[in-house]
Amino acid sequence: MNSTEYHPEILETDIQASWVKQNAFAAVADDTRDKFYCLAMFPYPSGKLHMGHVRNYTIADVIARYQRMLGKNVLQPMGWDAFGLPAENAAIKNNVAPAAWTLDNIAEMKRQLSRLGFAYDWDRELSTCTPDYYRWEQWFFTRLMKRNLAYKKESEVNWCETDQTVLANEQVVDGKCWRCDTPVERRAINQWFIKITDYAQELLDDLDTLEDWPEQVVAMQRNWIGRSEGANVRFPFEQGNIEVYTTRPDTLMGVTYLAVAPQHPLARRAAAASPELDAFIQELTQTAVAEADLATMEKRGVDTGLRATHPLTGDDVPIWVANFVLMSYGSGAVMSVPGHDQRDWEFASKYGLPIVQVVASQSGDLVDLSESAYAEKGPLMNSGTFDGLDFEDGFNAIVEALHDKGLGEKTVNFRLRDWGVSRQRYWGAPIPVVNCAACGPVPVSDEQLPVILPTEVAFDGVASPIKSMTDFTQTDCPNCGRPAERETDTFDTFMESSWYYARYTSSADTTAMLGKEANYWLEVDQYVGGIEHAILHLLYARFFHKLMRDEGLINSSEPFKRLLTQGMVLKDGAKMSKSKGNTVDPQALIDRFGADTVRLFSMFAAPPEQSLEWSDAGVEGSHRFLKRLWRLVQDRQKHAASIDVREVDLNKAQKDLRRKTHETIAKVSDDFGRRQTFNTAVAAVMELCNEISRHDGDAPEDAAVVDEALTAAVLLLAPIVPHISEALYVELTGSSSLDASWPVLDESALKRDEIEVVVQVNGKVRAKLSVAAQADKHSIERAAMEHENVKRFVEGLTVRKVIVVPGKLVNVVAN
Ligand code: ANZ
Ligand code: ZN
Predict the structure, then answer these.
(1) Which atom, in ligand 1's list, is nearest to the CA of 332?
(2) How far apart are CA 405 and CA 384, in angstroms?
(3) How far apart are the C-alpha atoms of 312 and 177, rounded to whole Å?
(4) Which helix (H) or strand (E) holds 732?
(5) Which of 3, 47, 598, 727 is the most buried (most CB within 10 A)?
(6) Among 235, 245, 324, which is best to mutate for testing ligand 1, by the most ligand atoms less than 8 A from CB?
(7) What is d(CA 281, CA 654) in angstroms, rounded to the nearest whole number?
(8) Would you call 624 exposed, middle or buried from its count of C-beta atoms within 10 A (0-12, 13-18, 19+)?
(9) What is the per-residue pLDDT across 493-542, written as a single tens digit (0 to 9) for each?
(10) Which ligand is closest in space to the CA of residue 412?
(11) Are 567 and 609 in contact (CB under 8 A)?
(12) At a CB cut-off of 8 Å and minimum separation 6, what does 223 contact?
């Protein structure tokens, strides 16, 4: 074997072994140094890395390694989001215990990540399915119970009979379970909630501090929280009132009916007297409605026959039960204004209810309500004493009139609901509660934590095996000591992923959830992950961070300073996925080309936030480039190390190469730091390599500028292709690149002796001049006027004006 050839498989594993031996990426808190905490969203241990993982983790690793070269004290940990349904499904299917299945997968994926050369501090590795981890989550939950931030409530859930579990709204697709397509049912069961709504305003306000988050993600969070300003309005009904929430109290005089949700108490009551209504309610409450479908679904309803009273006019207002009203929003009832709300309009049109216009157009043009509602704001009409008032004045005047009668007031509403954290499945962290007949739900005491999930289990069907394991369920009440039952529900796995980033700072701490290092490392300086987590995971993590702050565990308010959401990996224009059968196995590529090629391709093929189209040719191209870089270093002329290229006189070609080197350093630094466009950074280094190949000359100065250029190229690529860079850097300098600094820009190398100036005559380019870089306006003008071609085009004309833009252009105006 020729040692001057590029053999990635040998070179990479050797270098990785040396990193392990040195524990090169262990992060140690040090108050005297600036830290940088770089984190990629941890994987679910499904068994094998896919290209999406490779891309995600390469991006984060490149940023971490770059920051290290800038001199930061870098923390980059890795761990496993190890609870969740797939392990359980595998257990049911293949008769293996979820714990064993998960641990095997972790071992395999860890091996693959290591083979890719990611600079992780493996000492901080954590796995959410271990009691070391979830005990602190359980402990924290008991704190929340004590602070009244966790509570139990009977609530309707989406229930999948096949999976025997509750589904989140986003797990309901077209009324069916996302996994098994079983039609989803509605069921009322007792569940635990965490009061995220107490933090709604703060979660909204703090979005303004997240300057380094993609705007799109901030907007998605804002919509999800969904703050609106409106009014509660009460319509007198029998001895009491029916309350509605509206964002348009200005339209109150246009109300022609009330609509209540099928679950509304009034609907239930009316159903007792109407079999038609009863059947309708039955039907509606059986199937789940996704909130997103409310606007577009067909509007349906049944009249209750009951009448409320309009709070200002005293008119009778019919009450309907309607499918587009949600029980979980506002008060579960709406005042319908078909003239100005499209849903109300569709409903009124269908059932022949009156449609009244109470808002005129801003422009004075006539409004046509025959085809649709008029939803714009404008001056009020048909509204008695409120006529002519604009939106804001109308809003305020009507709310005031309601207030005087005790029938309404301004209010703020949030779309955000409390977070239901109970799951009826097995493979999750047990909810640390004991249900006592005498005391109710009691938190497990600190000394009895963790509540360990039994891992020696056998599945009989899909139901959670611990529900029937008496050694697990039977216990004593922590409060009164009498026999009681353990809670057998487990936490939503979003619980674990809401605080893992914080636990990495203290993963070995057996005495506390977070140790004193937490405040040194937090917040995460760079978080990298998929856009599919833009709402729930990020919102829950932001919420948890504030909860931990208010528990006194940390002193910051937000978890992630800068966020990068990487795009998908596509093949032939479609997302790579097992179900489409268009996956590319990263392991096969690593075996064939080495980790550096795979890393280079994933960074070079697209900017990180855009989707990356898979290309075999692109992978091969990346590999060829690395071979070329290797050869460039092997084939260079060796020179006496004493030449300092900044000190000696250089000829034009040597200066040109130095300039290219330093232009590349400037460009790549900006691409890595501010822009985070690693693809253009790679392209710039490739161009530099072209210049290096083109450079000839065999003076010692030539060898010196080539060495400078090669060293820069190798260092600029080191975060992306750390193995080959290490080998080549050793070759070039005799030392390891591990502690090498990012190349420093030499401004003086950017200076040009001569620059090109374009000369225009009457707006047309007539000449290009080479002038001394420091030439003044006067001498540039003289050189321009003396140029043969310029002379020719002004011949016979009078020169009226000569404008000189130094460094760029001369414009001659003549006629
Ligand atoms: C009367 C009205 C007139 C409305 C009008 C809108 C336009 P956001 O902005 O999302 O907060 N609404 C209230 N509670 C509801 C429920 N439980 N289910 C379905 N819809 C409900 O939406 C507030 C508006 O949504 C409210 O304002 C109400 O309709 C409807 F020209 O009241 B509006
Ligand atoms: Zn008790």
Answers:
(1) 17
(2) 17
(3) 46
(4) helix 722-733
(5) 598
(6) 245
(7) 84
(8) exposed
(9) 999 999 999 999 999 999 999 999 999 999 999 999 999 899 999 999 99
(10) 1
(11) yes
(12) 415
Asked if the model's pLDDT at residue 761 lies above 90, the reply is yes
Nearest ligand (C-alpha, residue 482): 2
pLDDT digits (tens, 9 = 90+) for 11-34: 999 999 999 999 999 999 999 999
Task: Please report which helix (H) or strand (E) contains residue 306, including its range.
Answer: strand 301-309
Question: Which of the ligands is closest to the CA of residue 441?
Answer: 2
pLDDT of residue 178: 75
Q: Ligand 1: residues whose CB is within 6 Å?
A: 228, 245-248, 251, 325-326, 329-330, 332, 334-335, 337, 340-341, 413
Output the CA 448–ligand 2 centroid distance in Å: 15
CA distances from 683 to 187, 674, 689 (A): 57, 17, 10
User: Which position has the token pair 């030392």?
Assistant: 735
For the chain, counts of helices (H) and of strands (E): 26, 32
Q: Which value, in Å, is the radius of gyration of the alpha carbons in the chain? A: 34
Whole-number pLDDT of residue 92: 77
Q: Round to whole Å and give the CA distance between 632 and 732.
A: 11
DSSP assignment of 162-190 equals: TTTEEE-GGGEETTEETTT-PBPEEEEEE
Neighbours of 226 (CB within 10 A): 15
Which residues fall within 8 angstroms of residue 119, CB to CB, at 6 or more apart? 19, 24, 25, 61, 64, 65, 68, 74, 76, 722
**So what's the pLDDT on residue 807?**
79
Contacts of residue 362, Cβ cutoff 8 Å, sequence gap at least 6: 376, 377, 378, 379
Strand, helix or coil at 636?
coil
Q: What is the DSSP letter of 671?
A: I
How far CA 638 is from CA of 626, 693, 700, in Å, comes to: 21, 15, 8
Q: Do 380 and 386 contact (CB within 8 A), yes or no?
A: yes
Closest-CA residue, ligand 1 atom 7, reads 341
Listed in sequence order, the residues at least 6 apart from 81 whose beta carbon sits closer than 8 Å to its beta carbon are: 42, 43, 44, 45, 128, 493, 496, 497, 500
Give the pLDDT confidence of 323-351 residue by residue, as tens digits. Answer: 999 988 889 999 999 999 999 999 999 99
Three-state secondary structure of 108-156 = HHHHHHHHCCCCCCHHHCEECCCHHHHHHHHHHHHHHHHCCCEEEEEEE
Q: Is the pLDDT of residue 2 over 50?
A: no
CB under 8 Å, gap of 24 or more: what pairs does 238-245 form? 241/407, 242/266, 242/308, 242/319, 242/333, 243/331, 243/333, 244/330, 244/331, 244/333, 244/334, 244/335, 245/329, 245/330, 245/331, 245/334, 245/411, 245/413
* Residue 477: φ, ψ to 5°: -65, 125
Contact partners, residue 276, CB within 8 Å, separation at least 6: 302
For residue 304, give the nearest of 283, 333, 273, 348 by alpha carbon: 273
**CA 413 to ligand 1 center in whole angstroms:** 11
Residue 442: nearest ligand to its CA?
A: 2
Q: Which atom of ligand 1 is nearest to the CA of 324?
A: 19
What tens digit of pLDDT does each residue of 203-238 get? 999 999 999 999 999 999 999 999 999 999 999 999
Residue 151: pLDDT over 80: yes
Interval between CA 80 and ligand 1 midpoint (Å): 42
Q: Which of 522, 528, 524, 536 is nearest to 560 (CA)?
A: 524
User: Any residues with CB less than 8 A from the CB of 599 and at least 6 apart, and which?
Assistant: 54, 58, 61, 62, 116, 117, 720, 721
Cα distances from 389 to residues 339, 377, 521, 648, in angstroms, run 17, 11, 55, 80
Cis peptide before 450 (omega within 30 of 0): yes
506 by DSSP, 3-state: which? helix
Q: Is the separation of the CB atoms in 189 and 155 below 8 Å? A: yes
The neighbour count for residue 685, using CB atoms within 10 Å, is 24
pLDDT of residue 292: 63
C-alpha distance across the termini of the chain, in Å: 75
Q: How far is the CA of 246 from the centre of ligand 1 (A)?
A: 5
